[in-house]
Design brief:
The chain is α/β, with parallel strands linked by helices. It has two domains: 236 residues, Acetylglutamate kinase-like (Carbamate kinase, 3-Layer(aba) Sandwich), CATH 3.40.1160.10; 148 residues, VC0802-like (2-Layer Sandwich). The protein contains 15 helices and 16 strands. Strand 5 and strand 6 form a beta hairpin.
Length: 471
């Protein structure tokens, strides 16, 4: 088989975990599989990089203290991982030297950020890229020390080219596919295992970009589609895609098989196992995606395919997106006015605000939509400024602390009474609904509630549709 195997942050969280990941790769190589490996940063490192960058541009920051303290912490973490993960002394030396050079580069970048006193999206991408750039040589070294040649490279070096939308860059897929085939097939033909940094890509000019948080999944899918592999494996610290977040619903179970479209809906509406964009490249070429637990290699996990066998389950999973804010634009002047939605969403689009869900009253007297809580202030500023400029007298109200609950399942399509069951369940459990939306695909029913009721709503729906273990 030809596989792309992606390891998340927890499966490479320390030296022992990296060695386990390398052993899994070696096991597949013994079965004569051809593998491309994609690695995330060690667990927590990306967030630590983001935090130090923010601290350095904060008022009254003290870089002479912050940078040395951070560099000592991050250096110890990765040098210790080298020592534990890699058995061969010569390979340890090579990996440690690469890690040290990368750390020196990171220190220079952080110093530059502190001098500038600002963190542009381009600078942020550069800083955050170091997590994967530090983990990749360690995993490649661990594979090499176990007897299989391995080469580490960045996503850009592997051939992934993007536009310059820093922090959420979009791959230029036609060029990327050609370059990935050129670069990685050569390495595979030489009998080596390429270890590619997830999350990271680059513009045509070679400037580092990132694919958005969680983008290592997307990297794996892009590489898998470019190479036409047999399967893409997403190795995580959970047993697969679950019927609900097990932290909110202890009775959640693994979904054995799910469709591409269902998986996309789940990823978009808060299931953190997959990046929302990762399914599309695999779906275009009908490449199965398997979500597996890196710590339980004997478990098959969840298989994602185009058309799974039909089941009696109407709903397959319940998700909750937290830290959501709702905005409502309303007013009598909106009634019968053409282009209301176009006006509102054009303003938001120009301000680069991502709209998560939309609902409009039949009278057209108001339109409501959901945005990430972090973008609330920017969205309100953009709307108020443009309304004032265009002399529009529509009112703007908002609810800051909301959650979007989504019931997802292909079995809902054409099934009578599903919405009634959903909302009756909410009523029985005294959960107030703030906003409702259902797509024409009938794959999901989504609604917004107060964030404090999210866990209660997930548990109630999970029980209503009998999604728990043993059911």
């Amino acid at each position: 088989m030809k596989l792309v195997v992606k390891f998340g942050g927890v499966p490479v969280k320390d030296g022992r975990s990296i060695r386990k990941a390398a052993e899994l790769i070696i096991d597949r190589c013994k079965k004569r599989d051809k593998l491309v490996v994609v690695t995330s940063a060690m667990a927590g490192v990306t967030e630590e990089l983001a935090t130090i960058a923010r601290k350095l541009v904060a008022p009254h920051a003290n870089p002479k203290q912050l940078i040395p303290e951070f560099m000592k912490h991050i250096s110890n973490k990765h040098f210790e991982a080298c020592r534990v993960a890699i058995a061969d002394k010569e390979v340890i030396y090579q990996a440690t030297r690469t890690v040290r050079d990368t750390l020196d580069n990171l220190q220079r970048v952080l110093t530059g950020v502190s001098y500038l006193g600002e963190l542009s999206p381009r600078s942020q991408d550069l800083v955050l890229s170091f997590g994967e750039r530090l983990s990749a040589p360690i995993l490649a070294g661990a594979i090499k020390s176990l007897g299989v040649p391995s080469k580490h490279l960045t996503g850009f070096e592997a051939g992934i080219i993007t536009d310059d939308r820093y922090t959420e860059a979009r791959p230029l897929l036609k060029k990327t596919r050609k370059l990935v085939q050129q670069h990685l097939n050569k390495i595979l033909a030489a009998g080596e295992v390429p270890v590619v940094t997830g999350f990271i890509a680059g513009t045509e000019d070679g400037v580092i970009t990132t694919l958005g948080r969680g983008g290592s999944d997307y990297t794996a899918s892009i590489l898998g589609a470019s190479l036409g592999v047999d399967e893409i494996w997403i190795m995580t610290d959970v047993d697969g895609i679950m019927t609900a977040d097990p932290k909110a619903e202890p009775n959640a179970r693994v979904i054995e098989v799910i469709s591409y479209l269902e998986a996309t809906e789940l990823a978009y509406f808060g299931a953190k196992v997959l990046h929302p964009q990762m399914i599309k490249p695999a779906m275009e070429l009908d490449i199965p995606v398997r979500v597996r637990n890196a710590f339980k290699p004997g478990h098959e996990g969840t298989l994602i395919v185009r058309k799974p066998k039909r089941t009696e389950k109407i709903v397959k999973a319940i998700t909750a997106s937290k830290h959501i804010s709702l905005i409502t634009v309303g007013g009598a002047g909106m009634i019968g006015t053409p282009g209301v939605a176009a006006t509102v969403f054009d303003i938001l689009g120009q301000a680069d605000i991502k709209v998560l869900m939309i609902s409009q009253s039949s009278s057209q007297a108001n339109i409501s939509f959901a945005v990430d809580q972090k973008q609330l202030d920017a969205a309100l500023r953009a709307l108020r400024a443009e309304f004032a400029k265009r002399q529009i007298d529509w009112s703007i109200t908002y609810d800051q602390n909301a959650s979007i609950i989504a019931t997802v399942g292909a079995g809902m399509k054409g099934k009578l009474g599903v919405a009634a069951r959903v909302f009756n369940t909410m009523g029985r459990n005294q959960v107030n609904i703030l906003m409702i939306a259902q797509g024409s695909s009938e794959l999901n029913i989504s609604f917004a509630i107060n964030e404090r009721d999210a866990a209660k709503a997930v548990h109630a729906l999970h029980d209503e549709f009998r999604l728990g273990k043993g059911r």
